[in-house]
Amino acid sequence: MKRVFLILCLCFLNYYGFAQQVLPPGIYTSKIRKAIKRFEAGKRCFDARNDKEAERFMHEALEVDPQFAEAHILISVLCREQKRYAEELQALKSALALAPELYIENYFRLAELELSDAQYASAQLHYTKFLSYRGISAADRSESQFKLQCIAFALEALKHPVPVEFKNCGAEWNSDLNEYFPSFTSNEFEFIFTRRLNCAVCYNPYQEDIFISQRNRFGQWTEARKIQELSSTGNEGAPSISADGQYMFITVSQEMDGLYMGGKSKGYGSCDIFFTKRQNGVWSRPTNLGPAINTPAWESQPCFSSDGKTLYFLRGKPQRNGSVREVDIYESHLNAEGQFTEAQKLPSPINTDRDEQSVFIHPDNQTLYFSSKGHPGMGGFDIFLSRKQPDGSWSQPQNLGFPINTSKDENSMIIAPSGNEAYFASDREGGLGGLDIYRFNLPELLKPQKITYVSGRVFNAKTSEPLAADLALTALETQINAAQLQSDINGQFLVTLTAGHDYGIQVKKPGYLFYSAHFSLKDQPADFKNPFIIQVPLVPIDTGSRVALRNIFFDVNQAVLKPESKAELWVLIAFLKTNPNVEIEIGGHTDNVGDKAANITLSENRAKAVYQFLITEGNIASSRLKYKGYGEQKPLVLNDNDSHRAENRRTEFKITKSK
Fold it and tell me: Whose CA, among 226, 318, 385, 565, lies 20 to 30 Å from 421?
């Protein structure tokens, strides 16, 4: 249709009806019959899709008459279709110099090329010239006005460049092929990315596979290797590895959907999002995330939040030519049953009426980086950041500035969990070939919040056997669920948390008493070489077993539950409802400071407060509950310093009946 439209334009030369001189059909800017004859022969070749011959005839026409504007226009179209943009630009300039009013859309196309080439002043001139005409379409007018906003932004950004220095990440990750879409584990020990291979036996000439590089004990990165169990003759890519390295979300092309889905289906759309779990160092067969995420449209570029609660990804409409249009960022949340909810489009100001790409949520779970054509930028896709506000909304996106953004497309950027370095794909000069992965130090204003990571091990308190268990971490000041995750079969877990806060942790597993503790990261530096370590002993459910409720809080010498105690109490309620045959005694304990009799009374009143909450709020039968105050009679450790006395001040429960 584009070609038919152009032929009509070239035949009638009455493109808009408001040119200074409207020529009758068949009348050209050239009066030389020999040039016209070659031009018309070239038009016939162009219409027959014989581009090589069409271009030959156009050049022959120009040899006869270099002032033949229509020949320059058709050459510009041929160059555009072959992506010879520098030649297209010169052909358009020649056409406009010869016949400024002949086809005014040439101003628009010339401005587009100049903007892409960072010729901002010229692009500004030609967009403005294009807008001076009446009768142009509303879509072209809107696009030109938006691009003028981009040019104004770019001219200002060039005056205030961001202080960054780009460094190629080297041969451990890069090759003479294309590398892109990187992802880190939270401890920065593993780095995965997509590599596009040349493949003669694949579904298409190129094959995307997932590669992994690991940091050795000397702090050096190993040469990237293909993850064989996730490789096929089709395309798998755009990986997002979970914070603890146990799960990976990947994009799978339609051709391979059937293979991973047992040959029964080709999936939901042209690309679907799958997940895979690592067990004993091997990744499982990828599983389609299903209709809550995947649709007949195109889903790609997943990013899983480090708190284990939200999946961000892209959705767009595939086109017949292989491109994708109307691309937006979506999110889906894991519900209490561990299922993803139906995905929803992120609202304004993130998504726009133009395309978005490359969504990345930093492990602080509050700073979103993404690429967009819909916010004023340097031209093409620019990278932006937006921060989640206290009410859950997103801030107005901030352009990362020049030279992080240029007139070309920038995307595929992630931020290391430490928040200090950014990684992205680029085909800039000096690389190893194709797209390479580069890094740069992130300026302070563009950094996410400081985080640290917490790791530990869950095990049987009696046998020391490692346990796979469910963990939940809560920010004590806000009672917001900070993370939910599972320990692996070796009992190991890892989670990133925003520094500067106090956290409670609850760990549960069927057949065991839940574990409760709290810790402070207020003075913990975001040091990825020295993480915060937690050991989690789980006690099997048995009569006489007991658990200290470390996240039950009271004011000094008071027996009124503080609001931050509620998260812990609801965990206890859930435990009692899951185990309906269990009966417990709630015990209150103090240190040895103060009067002994007063301590007995205080501890009993505190135990009673928990007892009453379980009955009134949790609807637990009182017949299953007892409470008692022990005062200072049963210390866990000596009351010889403040730390030990704090450990002895506690509320705990004991199993009095388990069957």
Answer: 226
